[in-house]
């Protein structure tokens, strides 16, 4: 499990390098593959703003005919962040 600082550092590197991230979430939530669009620190717990990309299957709360382009994810809910490598 990565610390909050490590999660933020990995997300920052993905954003600056333009790489696609593979976000492994805590609990039984499905993984997310997306670009990092930015950050939101207005609340006590920081969020990473994810941007849909060609490899994004879905974001939580997507509707069948109304897929979100961006999704704000609390960094505390992220277990691990890796660079996504398409197979």
Please characterize this protein's 3D structure.
By secondary structure, the chain is α+β, with helices and mostly antiparallel strands. It is 16% helix and 34% strand. It has one helix and five strands, in the order αβββββ. The protein has one helix at residues 4-17, and strands at residues 21-25, 32-40, 47-51, 70-74, 78-83. A five-stranded antiparallel β-sheet has the order 4-3-2-1-5. The protein is globular, with a radius of gyration of 12 Å. The relative contact order is 0.29. The mean pLDDT is 92.
Structural class, from secondary structure content?
alpha+beta
**Percentage beta strand:** 25-35%
What is the H/E string? Answer: HEEEEE
Characterize the biggest β-sheet. Answer: 5 strands, antiparallel
Query: What portion of residues is helical?
Result: 10-25%
Strand order of the largest sheet: 4-3-2-1-5
- Head-to-tail CA distance between termini: 25 Å
> How large, in whole angstroms, is the Cα Rg?
12 Å
Mean pLDDT: 92
Uncertain spans: none
Number of strands: 5
């Amino acid at each position: 499990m990565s610390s909050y600082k490590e999660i933020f550092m990995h997300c920052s590197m993905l954003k600056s390098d333009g790489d696609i991230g593979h976000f492994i979430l805590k609990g039984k939530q499905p993984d997310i593959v997306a670009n990092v669009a930015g950050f939101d620190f207005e609340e006590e717990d920081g969020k990473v703003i994810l941007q849909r990309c060609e490899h994004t299957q879905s974001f939580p709360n997507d509707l069948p005919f109304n897929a979100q382009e961006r999704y704000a994810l609390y960094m505390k809910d992220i277990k691990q962040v890796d660079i996504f490598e398409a197979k």
